[in-house]
Amino acid sequence: MTQIKFFGEGLPDPLVCLRNGVFPGLVPLVNSYLANMNVDADTHCTIQRYLKLIQKRASGELLTTAAWLRKEVTSHPEYKHDAVITQSINYDLLRKIDNIVSNDASCPELLGQCVSSKTTDTIPAAVAKAEKCSTTNC
Questions:
Q1: Angle, vertex CA 57, rays to CA 14 and CA 120, nearest 5
Q2: CB of 42 closer than 8 Å to CB of 36
Q3: How many other C-beta atoms are found inside a 10 Å radius of the C-beta of residue 87?
Q4: DSSP secondary structure letter of residue 86
Q5: Which of 103, 107, 115 is nearest to 67 (CA)?
Q6: 14-24 b/e with 16+ CB inside 10 Å = b?
Q7: What is the pLDDT of residue 2?
Q8: Among 61, 70, 81, 78, CA closest to 12
């Protein structure tokens, strides 16, 4: 697996998780912020999944998007190790990406094992009604 060079040697893990005792890390900061916010359980769980994805990428457990793309291109049967991405390589890569995005194919080395979410784009009717009542004194 390719390592990311980030502020010197190694992976950006110390910036994401508490490691050196100086900077608390992104994950503890976000968790502290969430603890003080009124966030529903589904949203909290979804944010925790994203944080876990960031942690796994920072530690090198999962590939970054760039590393995954590089691996896909360099392992393609038509790739000649000349830094040229042919139309065929590009087409196959885009088809694979489309299959991943549409959930027709999994990609655990990039996204981990579980990629579904319970969070929806709509506000539940009860929450919308409660918010409306709190602003109009009903």
A1: 115
A2: no
A3: 8
A4: -
A5: 107
A6: bebbeeeeeee
A7: 45
A8: 61
Query: What is the reported pLDDT for 32?
Result: 86
- How much is the pLDDT for 85? 95
Of the candidates 30, 58, 60, the one whose C-alpha atom is nearest the C-alpha of residue 46 is 30
The domains located in the chain, with CATH, are 26-132 (1.10.8.960)
Mean pLDDT (10-residue bins), the chain, 138 residues: 41 56 75 86 87 88 94 96 95 97 93 69 67 59
HSE-up (13 A, CA, CB side) for residue 53? 18
pLDDT for residue 93: 97
8 Å CB contact between 107 and 47 = no
